Structures are given as C-alpha cells and as structure tokens.
Amino acid sequence: MENDKIILREKLNEHYGSIFEEALINEIAEIGIQKKMEEGIRFIDIGDEITHIPLVIDGVIKIVREDDNGDEILLYFLEHQSTCAISFANCIHKKRSIFRGTVERDLDCILVPVDKIEDWLIKYGSWRVFMIDRYNERLLEMVEVIENLAFKKLDKRILKYLKYEAKLAQDKFLNITHQKIAHDLNTSRVCVSRILKKLERKGRVKLGRNIIIVA
Predict the structure, then answer these.
(1) Smaller CB count within 10 Å for the chain: N or C?
(2) Mean pLDDT over all residues of the chain?
(3) Interval 53-59 mean pLDDT
(4) Does one domain contain both 139 and 192?
(5) Domain range for 171
(6) How far apart are CA 166 and CA 175, in angstroms?
(7) Are residues 187 and 109 in the same domain?
(8) Alpha-carbon span 44 to 48, nearest angstrom
(9) One domain, residues 178 and 142
(10) pTM for the whole structure
(11) CA count, 13 A, side-chain hemisphere, 169
C-alpha cells in the first residue's frame, strides 16, 4: 500500500509537478486512485453520480452531451494535464453528470474525490489556478461548438476534428472512416463525405482508400 503511494507520488511529480505545489501532490498521492481504462470503455454516463474527477496522465476522454433527440454532440476532449472542470458546479452541489465520457485513447489517470475539490480551492493556490484555467478552456471549447452548430460551420468543425486526431496520433495519415467522423460530430456520413471532398479541393486534406491525410 505504501509502495503504491510512492509510485503515485512519483507519477504526479512527473506529470503535475510543474503545476501543483508539493503539499498538494502529497495529499493527492495519499487519497488518489490510479485508474487505467482501455479505448472504448465508458468513463461516466449521463445521470451517473459524480464521486471523483480525473487528473489525466495519459490518453484521452471524449466528452459529449445528448440533445433532445438523444443524439450525441461532441463538446471537447480531456487529455494530458487536464480534468473535467466544467462539471465543477455539479460536484459542489452533488448533482449527477450531465455529460457522457468515453475513453478515446487508452487512459491512465488519477481519480480525486469530489469532496476535496472545494477544500483545495481554499487551501492550495495552484489547485485554484488549475481549476479556473481548465474551466475557462472547456468553456471556450463549448462556446465554439455552440457557434459552429448555430452557424452550420460543419467544414470548420470537421477540419478542427481531423487536426486534433492528427495531433493525438502524431501522424497526419489518419485511418478513420467518414462514418466515425459523422458519429462524433452528430451529422450524416453523406455530409461528411461532401465536405471532405470540398476540403480536398481546397488543399486542406487528401483522401485515400480508408485514409485521410491532413495537409
């Protein structure tokens, strides 16, 4: 047990040492839970009780919201040195999740109990800055999603999505289907294919058999 805490502390120092003060890292190491999940596993669902928030070490969590028809709308991704700060109010008021999170890339994270969030905001300046910064990042990403949905800027959404996938894969050659893009962006495969051809004509992407090359 003590050895697990030492390993957790070392991992926190490696990935969050430049963000959190030593006392906070020690406290997280004492109560945090390391969690590993494979791609495709549901991290949290709409209506689930929020008991912990993740500090992402490696991997990606895709966060979506359901519309009135039950269709998913992609909001943002959680990756290295990130957490779901946008659900902060839900945690404080002990409300259930209004988002769905699915592991997009094999996940390694540290789970922190939500009942510590408010205490740490007062106790640790580094935690306060971290949560506010991540909240602002998530809020701006959600505003961009709303703007793109409102003004039907599907071409911008697709291009941003592809650039993000290329960044995650560290490869501009993406083995991704038009149907997968359509599902993640809550649109039709026909629309995705049409816009990809439009982007190809503009030189933004190149299309091959079962592959998309981000220019």
Answers:
(1) N
(2) 89
(3) 95
(4) no
(5) 154-214
(6) 10
(7) no
(8) 7
(9) no
(10) 0.79
(11) 15
